[in-house]
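Colleagues,

For the teaching module next term, I've prepared a clean inverse folding example: a structure given as tokens, and then the sequence designed for it. I'd like students to try predicting residues themselves before seeing the answer, so please don't circulate the second half yet.
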């Protein structure tokens, strides 16, 4: 791991109650771990759809309620007694229709309930680099003032941009301090979505077969597009900072130091890299966008066509955040977990 620099000391803000949607997800468990360790946080209330036991994780500040962000009454009850609301609930891999219902309509519920409640004074929303969209004319690196255009052919990107538009609409004129975190691809032992999105990941027996016969490994095209990764524990640290820090509200890009190539990702996740011209990726992306009955997971192939490397200097200098893991270390941690 890379050596992190010391963070600026923050004034004591004891007694905070933090409400968290999606505490059982890839980022959620790490985020609650970080909030549990934060001396400024006295109480954490989590809500998600699945059964979950906070005690199994050794959490002592956290209570948990089963609920759905599509249920406005459940969301109202969750945020009513919170000083800070952290919204993490989001479907990453699913159908376009199901994900829009949960991700956009459910997210609106959370934002509107937080604005309507009397007590919350801060809202922390975890968005994504995908909100910028995968456009050839994006500036490199992306900064927080880059327009959020999404990419219509990539449902996750389109929905992340839509959620930020809803956030701006709902919170306009309110007294809420709004923090928006935009991580790149999140990975690590507890966040395996990158591996799960690979077409071969769900083929029974393929990993063991390719270990014995490497030529059976699937080919994975690499048009030379650089990729950033961020470890789930580093995102969790940023969430805890956003919940408690005296730093100004606003948007913050998050990524581990350095970059990895798609060839390195392919090798780590059990494939054989194949270098292809960048124009090939663009043509493939165009063709995929016009295929009928396309599985939603295949839409992630669009993400490889253009660079979405971000500048994280604002998170370092203003939020006081420093990633502990580099992109390469994050990829290795994911591969080791598999």
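(Answer key — instructors only)
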């Amino acid at each position: 791991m890379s050596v992190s620099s010391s963070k600026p000391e923050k004034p004591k803000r004891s007694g905070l109650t933090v409400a968290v949607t999606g505490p059982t997800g890839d980022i959620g468990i790490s985020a609650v771990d970080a909030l549990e360790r934060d001396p400024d946080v006295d109480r954490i209330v989590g809500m998600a759809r699945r059964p979950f036991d906070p005690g199994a994780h050794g959490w002592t500040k956290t209570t948990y309620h089963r609920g759905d962000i599509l249920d406005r009454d459940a969301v109202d009850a969750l945020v009513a007694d919170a000083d800070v609301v952290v919204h993490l609930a989001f479907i990453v891999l699913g159908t376009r229709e199901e994900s829009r219902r949960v991700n956009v309509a459910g997210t609106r519920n959370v934002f509107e309930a937080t604005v309507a409640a009397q007590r919350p004074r801060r809202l922390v929303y975890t968005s994504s680099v995908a909100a910028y969209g995968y456009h050839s004319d994006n500036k490199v690196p992306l900064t927080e003032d880059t327009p959020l255009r999404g990419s219509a052919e990539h449902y996750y990107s389109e929905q992340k941009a839509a959620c930020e538009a809803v956030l701006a609409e709902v919170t306009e004129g309110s007294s809420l301090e709004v923090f928006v975190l935009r991580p790149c691809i999140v990975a690590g032992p507890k966040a395996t979505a990158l591996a799960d999105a690979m077409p071969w990941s769900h083929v029974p027996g393929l990993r063991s077969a390719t270990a014995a016969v490497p030529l059976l490994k699937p080919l994975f095209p690499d048009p030379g597009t650089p990729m950033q990764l961020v470890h789930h524990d580093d995102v969790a640290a940023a969430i805890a900072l956003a919940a408690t820090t005296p730093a100004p509200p606003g948007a913050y890009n998050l990524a581990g130091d350095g970059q990895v190539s798609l060839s390195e990702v392919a090798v780590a996740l059990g494939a054989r890299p194949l270098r292809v011209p960048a124009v090939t990726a663009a043509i493939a992306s165009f063709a995929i966008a016009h295929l009928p009955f396309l599985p939603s997971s295949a839409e992630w192939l669009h993400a490889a066509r253009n660079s979405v490397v971000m500048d994280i200097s604002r998170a370092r200098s203003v939020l006081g955040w420093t990633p502990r893991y580099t992109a390469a270390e994050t990829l290795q941690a994911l591969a080791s977990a598999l």
